[in-house]
Amino acid sequence: MGEELTVLVCDDSPVVRKQIIKTLKTIGIQHILEAADGKEAVTVCHKKTPNIVFLDIIMPKMDGIAALKEIHQHFPSIKVIMASSTSGQAHLKKSKLLGAYSFIQKPISELVMRDLIKKILNEKDRS
Questions:
Q1: Taking the mean position of all CA atoms in its chain, how far away is CA 94?
Q2: Measuring CA to CA, which of 11, 20, 46, 64 is 20 to 30 A from 104?
Q3: Could you tell me the strand order of the sheet in which 52-56 lies?
Q4: What integer pLDDT is reported at residue 87 of this predicted model?
Q5: Which segments of the chain does DSSP mark as H helices, in order?
Q6: What is the per-residue pLDDT across 47-86, written as a single tens digit (0 to 9) for each?
Q7: Strand, helix or coil at 43?
């Protein structure tokens, strides 16, 4: 599933990035990029234009909300999935307003990730 997709994983925790990448590989994603903060994520999007971005909210240099705003402004077709260990309604509302595709709770389960990618692929097939 999703062999043709390029996915960017952005989290300031190398451990969390590794876990997400491992899960993505398990469900068949082969093209995976990494970023350690929002600023780096924006740079990677400009260079590689991934299909999907898993974006942590609380990070140094540039948080996920600011990165989402910039990514969505330049690349509205990128599906940005916000990830947070806190379930703040304010973050959820702001993320949706700024164009986030979805908002998921950490730790991210394989099932949730698989369902999201399946949904994105189905939408891609229909367009």
A1: 16
A2: 46
A3: 31-35, 6-10, 52-56, 79-84, 102-105
A4: 62
A5: 14-26, 38-48, 64-74, 89-97, 110-126
A6: 999 999 999 999 999 999 999 999 999 999 999 999 988 7
A7: helix
pLDDT digits (tens, 9 = 90+) for 91-124: 777 888 899 999 988 888 999 999 999 999 998 7
Check residue 86 and give its pLDDT.
Answer: 72
- CA 73 to each of CA 7, 22, 31, 96, 113: distance values in angstroms, whole numbers, following the listed order: 18, 29, 23, 14, 24
- Among 24, 85, 1, smallest CA distance to 9 is for 24
Residue the block writes with tokens 């379930």 = 87
Residue 88's identity, in one-letter code, is G
Please name the residues in contact with 23: beta carbons below 8 A apart, sequence gap of 6 or more. 108, 110, 113
- 0.85 exceeded by pTM: yes
SS3 of residue 87 by DSSP: coil
What's 4's DSSP letter? T
Across residues 37-46, what is the average pLDDT?
Answer: 98
- List of domains in the chain: 8-57+64-126 (3.40.50.2300)
